[in-house]
Amino acid sequence: MKSTRTERLIRMASRFLVAPSRQISLTGLSEQFQVSKTVISDDVAIIDRSMREEGIGGICVERGRTGGAFLRPRLSREYRRSFLGSIAETLSQDNRILPGMLIHYSDILFNPGFAGPLGYALASDFADREPDVVMTSEVKGIPLAVFTAHALGIPMAVCRFRNRPSDGPAVAVHYPSGRGEVRTMFMGTRFLSAGKKVLIIDDFMRGGSTAAGMLLVAREFKADVVGTGVFIAASEPARKAVSEYSALLRLERGNDGVPMVKVQD
Amino acid sequence: MKSTRTERLIRMASRFLVAPSRQISLTGLSEQFQVSKTVISDDVAIIDRSMREEGIGGICVERGRTGGAFLRPRLSREYRRSFLGSIAETLSQDNRILPGMLIHYSDILFNPGFAGPLGYALASDFADREPDVVMTSEVKGIPLAVFTAHALGIPMAVCRFRNRPSDGPAVAVHYPSGRGEVRTMFMGTRFLSAGKKVLIIDDFMRGGSTAAGMLLVAREFKADVVGTGVFIAASEPARKAVSEYSALLRLERGNDGVPMVKVQD
């Protein structure tokens, strides 16, 4: 049955949005909706304009034999700034301060209403590097990493701090913690392989030892790390165990010594 | 600037899809797009028809002063069956069998291309019970729970097996493991409160002791559990520590003694 043009456009748009960064065949759309590929191409152009206007990203069309199109995430600067600003404000409230220059943020990351857009923001930042897999470490970084992976259309690999029978075979990697102890991380052998482009995503970076551990995991698998993105980076210590990373927010000590969170420019 | 009708429809549809189950103000849409509320209502009816046709769900409109509309997830029976069938087939492959009636499934749950639709399926099953929060336990259930919570437009609360300074204050609950030992679970005090309606989501249920532990956590907070949904339930032991739950898939022992996964009817 032929649907109306408007219905077809909404249905096509929904497929791009439900599975961002994943190719949808234009030939398949043309066959399913019983219209020519030229009509489908016009439809895609309209959807592209609407998504850009909405500040979500754009539709990329791959010409040639595969003939697919996909939504490439790119959050608008205005939305990004106001969204991160409101989260920084929430996190700076008195009732969130924990002992030891720590703040309570897990309710933000465990709420998909926040973690979803945060992952979309990180995906927008790193989409150009075309990662194959998002790597994170358990536990609090998982929702952020999974939404980043969702927006990038790629799988997630989780570094675990123990390995159990139900987790399957894994590679163990040893790395120094911030306090000089040696810690162990496990990565399931199914999740990574040589030459894969890895994007590291983590919730919080203080000294950067966990991120440095994840670099070692990638190296052990002969995979290439193409970027490291974190939700919050603490300004102390200034010197981190990793040289390159970008953070959405920064945790600083205010003039009165009280922790506060700012948007990273 | 006024946009064309088609562009407006696509932009409106994208907002329903990006934040399912969350109310969008019809008055707000009417003001932003500079058209009457009658026009917006007609638009919403078209979007509703397209989403139903697409097998995603429907748009619910709340009349009255708040005047909001939202996408209520309801996966079509056909898509659900074929999607779960393909996952059951993947999981039944020889190379996934682990010692002790276990199968390797974490790469499925860590891949948002699978975890997203699985969460959407669970959200479709439980939306009518109108939960306020999705509860899960670390680690492998988190992606499934977060996508279920995303589709239901509600936050997630994670039961942890240890409590550290950065996790903030928590309530500890003790529960018997399947082997008769006593285990401890922690739930952050920010995540739950009296009278909240809780949906428990977990990755794998063998004897049901973890789910039973989560019931104790909910009881400790005087919250009400409105349902328990799991990705895979093992057919052995038949008797579980919880009386009510529903599973998407079932792990059975075939005639040759080899584990296999079936879609739960």
DSSP strand content of chain A: 25-35%
Give the distance, in angstroms, between the N- and C-terminal Cα atoms of chain A.
Answer: 51 Å
Low-confidence stretches of chain A: none
Give the domain tally of chain A.
2
Please name the CATH topology of the largest domain in chain A.
Rossmann fold
**Largest binding interface between chains:** A-B, 57 and 57 residues
The averaged pLDDT of chain A comes out at 95
Q: SSE string of chain A, helix = H, strand = E?
A: HEHHEEHEEHHEHEEEEHEEE
Structural class estimated from helices and strands of chain A: alpha/beta
Rg of chain A, Å, rounded: 21 Å
Please give the oligomerization state of what you see.
homodimer
How many strands in all of chain A? 13
Largest sheet of chain A: 6 strands, mixed
CATH C-level class of the largest domain in chain A is Alpha Beta
Shape of chain A: globular
How would you describe the overall organization of this protein?
Two copies of one chain form a homodimer. Chain A is built from eight helices and 13 strands. Chain A is an alpha/beta fold. Chain A folds into two domains: 5-73, Winged helix-like DNA-binding domain superfamily/Winged helix DNA-binding domain (Arc Repressor Mutant, subunit A, Orthogonal Bundle); 77-263, 3-Layer(aba) Sandwich (Rossmann fold), CATH 3.40.50.2020. In chain A, the strands form four sheets. Chain A has a six-stranded mixed beta sheet with strand order 7-6-10-11-12-13, with helices on both faces. Chain A has a three-stranded antiparallel beta sheet with strand order 1-3-2. Chain A has a two-stranded antiparallel ribbon with strand order 4-5. At the A-B interface, helix 1, helix 3, helix 6, helix 7 and strand 7 of A face helix 1, helix 3, helix 6, helix 7 and strand 7 of B.
